[in-house]
Structures are given as C-alpha cells and as structure tokens.
C-alpha cells in the first residue's frame, strides 16, 4: 500500500532497456484485452441500434436510461450511498489513523489489528453477520433492550443497510493508506509548529492535512470506485427499491435478459467511476512529479 | 547432488506423467452435472444420489459442479457457453443441467441445443407428472410448493384463504414479509398467487405461449394494486428480503410471525432444528400457492449425452423419487401413482390435488419487471 503514496521519484530512474518494455508488456496486454477491449465493445454495442438489419449510430439506449424513472432512481441511490459511505469512512478513519500514528505501545497495535481485520472477511459473511447483529431481534437490539433503550429500528433492508456494510468493509484499506501517509509527516514539522505555540487543531489543519492530502485523495477515490460498483452489501442489506447499479445491472442482464440495456447501465456506471479514476491517476502523477 | 532446477523439472515431469493418464481415463465417462440449486439439494445429490448411481453404473462417474450465485445463478452463463459451443460445434464441457429452465437461452430450443425427451431415449418418461411438463425439452424430476409458515405461538388461527390471509396481514401490521420475486421462489410464488387472485384464481389463463405485452398490461396491474395495498402492513412498512433464507431467518428469530416458504426448505429446517418446532405450515385452500418443478436439461452436443440420459432415467427411478419425498421434503417428479402405496397414505396430507403453476419465460420477466416498477418503490417510511 505504501507505494501508492510514497514519493516514487526517490527511486533511481531505471535505464530504458527493452527488457523493461517486455516486463510491462504482459500487464499492458492484459489490460488491453480484459479492460480496454470490453469497454470499447460495450460502447459500440450500446451506441448501435439495429435498423432493418443494419447497425446505425444512435443514442437511443442512453435516452431510454435517462428517461426511465427506475434507472434514474437507482443511479441516484448509488451515488448517494457511495458519497455518504466515502464521507463516513473519512470521518471514522482519520481520527483512528491519527491515533495510530501518534501513540505507541501495545494498545495501538491491537487497535490496528482489529481495524484491519475486515480485510480478511468475505463480503457475504459480513452481510449475514450484520443481519444477525443489527437486524431485528439481533444482538444490538438485545443489548439496547437490556440497557433499557427501546424503540430501536434496524437499518436492515433500508437505504442505510448497505452504508453500514460497506463502511465496515472499507475501513481497513482507507486506514492503511491514511496511516502510511501520516507516517511520512516529519515529526520535526509538528515539533516546530508546537514550539511556536500551535494547538492540536491548528497542527492538524495547517500541517498534517496538507501533507497527507494526496493519501486522502488516493484512499477516498479507491473507496469510491469500490463502493460505486458494490454488489453483495446492497443486495443483501439494502431495500428492494431503489437498487444499487451493480444489483440493477445483474437483474437487467440475468432476469430481464436485456444485455444491451445492462451494458448501457454498465457504461454509465463506468463513466461515473472514471471521474474518481481520473482524480486518482492525476494524484499519482502529481506525486511522481513532486518527488522528482 | 542434483540442483534445484533439475529437481523442479523432474518433479514437474513426474507430476505430469502421474496426472495425464488418470485425467483422460476419467474424462471418458465422467458426466459433468451442473447445478445452482440450494445447498440442501446439492448436498442431497452429492451424498445420496451420486453414490447410488455410481454403484449401479460402475463405468460412469458423476462430477457435480455447483454454480450457485446471484439471481439466476451461474447456470445461465454455463448455458450461454453451451449454446455458443453448439453454434461453434465445440464441446460444451457440460453434460447435464439440474434445475434449468429450457426456455433459456432465447432461441436455444429452436436451434436444437436441448435434447428432446421421449420414451425412446428415456424409458420412464411416461411416468412423469403431466402437471410439471412445460415442453419436452425440460424434464421435471422433483417439485415443491410454496406454503405459509407461521409461528403458532403468535398466530392462533392460520388463514386458509387469500382473503383471510390479506385480512390477517392488515390486522397484524409488520408481521408478514416475502422476498423479492427475482431472488427466491417463496416470494415469487406469493406474487404469482396475487396475480392469480387478480385474474379470477384461474392459473390456466397464463401459458408459456400466450404472452403478449397487451395481455400483460391488462392482467398484471390488478396484482400490483393488491400487493401495493399490502405494502404498508408488511414488515417495516414494506421491506422485502433478498432471498428464501433471509425470510426464514426473520421468521426464526421472531421478527415476523408469518412468511411464504418452500415446503422442502421449511420441512428440512424443522427436521434439523434450524426452525423452532413452534413453526407450523399451512396451505391456502381456495387456490394453493404456486409450486414449481425443477427441470433437467441435457445439451444435444454434450460429450456424454448417453450417460447424461442414463442419469436422468436414474433420477426417475422409484428409489430416487422416494428419496425426494422422504429426504428432501419435495414432491416427486413422477406421477404419485408410481410411488409405493404406503408412502401415498403416509404423505396424504401433503399430496397436492393440484399444483398451480405460472409459466416461466416472458410472463415471469414481465412479472419481475412490473413488481420492481410498481410495488417495490411504493414505500412510505415516515
């Protein structure tokens, strides 16, 4: 994970041997064959409409998507739970990362182990475990009842269901990227600020946050990409309607047997995600330039 | 002393020698059976059907491939692959589909992908329950029916008509839930029962062949009205679970007190103690909830088509059909008259006089799409 935000420029620039080209050839060919080619093929499928046996360029498939209430509702819902979850991830992980960076001993190590644990739990297990925990008559409700707090309403099968599941799943990656970013904040800078009388909040806002800006962008854009295409958590924990784009695509493809419309939904999802992708790539490039 | 590289090379060569003959010997008579049925069914096939078949046919082995996944399961993709292989005249690498609707992929029957069953290739075909046959390309070998499962500590008098059921749901808000119609048969057949209710309780109005958009637009909205009307009285003002299992989970932990459930899943759950013994089952008497038969399909281009047909014939044997009833909690795929008399008396209560069905294919697609457009969004969670 460190390589994502580490200033790569410090490494010696490799001489351009053909061997180097050969080494990158394999991943490049894979990306072209498994990513670029399918994208282009989907794009041409969705932009062609069959008129009397001949394919003709048309935006009809996209027009159909954007004039359909259900599709728009699902797209809006996906955008909503993605931005909400990403924002919550930032709010949860930043304090945790600061704590892990600035404290020492056994407890922080334990906290870090707990926080990275979700990385090793498959999504479907998380979903069923959460149903038992936050679901009706689940552990949480029993605990609240025992404490005399009644009137708990479970988020299971509501729009907040997937947010909770995806948040739990997303903590490890976000945390690891933020911690690695924080580890590059020089202690000297913080000490210097403290010497001239800056309080903790000032140090956070004026020293730490600007220094880990790239890590934050990298972490959040990666999470954005993961959550926008999420399937399992919205499928099992979310409401029947609206659906996440992932669930909607699968249903359009599998149940409604409408591959062209499913490809159109996929292209629109891809366009939304590519915004985050562009931000991510630009950050990485800026990192490299800064490090040069 | 040999170095590491030599060791690796010779090891790999030895390994290849060891593997090759075994694999080709297996491939000659290995029937690849693909299934996406729930684990109760795939376990039953793996643990009781497969050993019995292999004992009876020492020259054949069964290779069970489980493709359970989201929605329609992985079988649709395998069938697409078989269809593509059919068009390319290649080996589909699958011999047998357990639980697949022969109307898919579109155009496959017309193109000749699926084997047509009759008494010449399947001697027991005449015994098959006529209620279950949709086309001759799918073989119904087991069935089950949806019924109502309820918590007898909370429900004193279980409803036995649709009218009584809807009245009960409205009188006990939040105590009933069914799953989304595309994510599991129990909720799906509840929706189908609402469609039957809206059309004079006459399942014969819907056939595989009579679908048209006009008739769907005329015959389905009545059901959407019934179901939307029920929505505010459902669990959490109109929540729908994502499958048969999550629905039973809510019943088992007491969050709701009545759900539609598959007969086989509920009976097995009770037998294994997953469902508390206070859960009771009841069927509607005015028109039963729909049931369905699980179909077998065999690609005509399967490498072991003859072996696959042998396996299909084995599934129709008395031993397997009795086991469907006794071990799986399902209904036999053969007509009840072909089962031993003592079993017929023992299961007299669950032998359905009729199993209403609803055609798959276009009607089902229209139902799922209509439900998602008209019923699911109709939620007011203040």
UniProtKB/TrEMBL annotation, chain A:
InterPro entries: MetI-like, MetI-like_sf. Keywords: Cell membrane, Membrane, Transmembrane, Transmembrane helix, Transport. It is found in: Cell membrane. The chain crosses the membrane at residues 21-40, 77-100, 107-131, 160-182, 203-228, 266-285. This is ABC-type spermidine/putrescine transport system permease subunit I. Residues 75-280 form the ABC transmembrane type-1 domain. It is a multi-pass membrane protein. The lineage of its organism: Bacteria, Pseudomonadati, Pseudomonadota, Alphaproteobacteria, Hyphomicrobiales. Signal peptide: none annotated. Belongs to the binding-protein-dependent transport system permease family. Coiled coil: none annotated.
Automatic annotation (TrEMBL), chain B:
Keywords: Periplasm, Signal. PROSITE patterns: TAT. Residues 1-27 form the signal peptide. It comes from the Bacteria. Pfam families: SBP_bac_8. InterPro entries: SBP, TAT_signal. This is Spermidine/putrescine transport system substrate-binding protein.
